[in-house]
Structure formats: structure tokens, C-alpha cells
Amino acid sequence: MTSAARRGASAALLLAVAAAAGGAGCGGRDRFAAPATVVGETCASCGMEVRNPRYMAASVAAGRVRPYDSIECAMKEAAPVAPRGHRILYLADYATGTLHHADSLWVVRAKIPSPMGAGLAAFLDRAEAERVAAAREGTVSPASVLFAPAGAAR
Ligand SMILES: [Zn+2]
User: Fold this and answer.
1) What is the pLDDT of residues 111-151, one digit of tens each?
2) Strand 98-101 to strand 139-142: parallel, antiparallel, or no bridges (unpaired)?
3) Ligand 1 ion: residues within 5 Å (CB)
4) What is the pLDDT of residue 106?
5) Where along the chain do its domains lie?
6) What is the pTM of this model?
7) What does the alpha-carbon distance between residue 90 and residue 87 come to, in Å, rounded to a whole number?
8) Res. 105: pLDDT tops 90
9) How far apart, in whole angstroms, are the C-alpha atoms of residue 120 and residue 78?
10) 66 C-alpha to center of ligand 1: Å?
């Protein structure tokens, strides 16, 4: 049996890998944080000023922020632009007017006076989203489904 020798060899390999990984350095700075707000900026899709924090949205790609005045404007841009993972999307929580990663939000399409008229608003709290959808004759879907490439939903 040569298992002792093999164990020794793999231990040496592990050490080499660990040393190489250590050389890459560590630092939390390369992780891009969500912008706090984009109010006052110009919508990258329709060119209107972002006025209402409840409907604002933003996408971040390669460290650059593109602001939107509405979820529908963010959809217009994000849907056709493909490779997922390249672009990080943030939508405002309607209740608080703060931006959050789109994956954690529920989008209501209802009789809501959103800036571009599509009636879209996003919610962190699913129960709140259901409540608003019921009161305003709308529907609720996860933002991740709404922004999925190539229409599963129309
Ligand atoms: Zn817009």
C-alpha cells in the first residue's frame, strides 16, 4: 500500500494551492454596493428626471450605474440585454423608497400611477405586494421572473 505516500503528495499540493490563493490578496472593495438613490438623475431609458423614489430603479454593469425613473424603463433596457449576471438590477421598495437587489422584490402590476404608465411597483414584503395587488386589481410576480430574458410571460 502506498496511501501514506499519496497522502503526503496531496498535502504538498494543497499547500501550493493555498500559497497561490493567498497571493491574490483580499479586500472587500471590488464588490459594488447598491446606489442609495438615483433621485435627481436622468433616466437612462426615457431621458426624464427621476423624481419619485418609490418607482426608481438602477442597473449596475462594470461599475457604472444607469438610473431609471420607473420599473418599466428598467425592464425595457434589461430584458433584451442578455447575459444574466453581467448586469445587477436594483428596484425601489415602494413602501420605503429605497433600492434593493431585484431578486429580493415582488413586482405588482396594477392600477398604480407609475411614471411611465405601466402600473408597476416593487415590494420587499410579499404580503404588502399581495395587499396592494388585491386593492388595485393587479397581479404579483417575483421580479426575477419579470426580468427573465425571453418572455415566459408575454
Ligand atoms: Zn424612464
Assistant:
1) 999 999 999 999 999 999 999 999 999 999 999 888 776 54
2) unpaired
3) 43, 45-46, 69, 73
4) 97
5) 35-146
6) 0.72
7) 10
8) yes
9) 15
10) 11
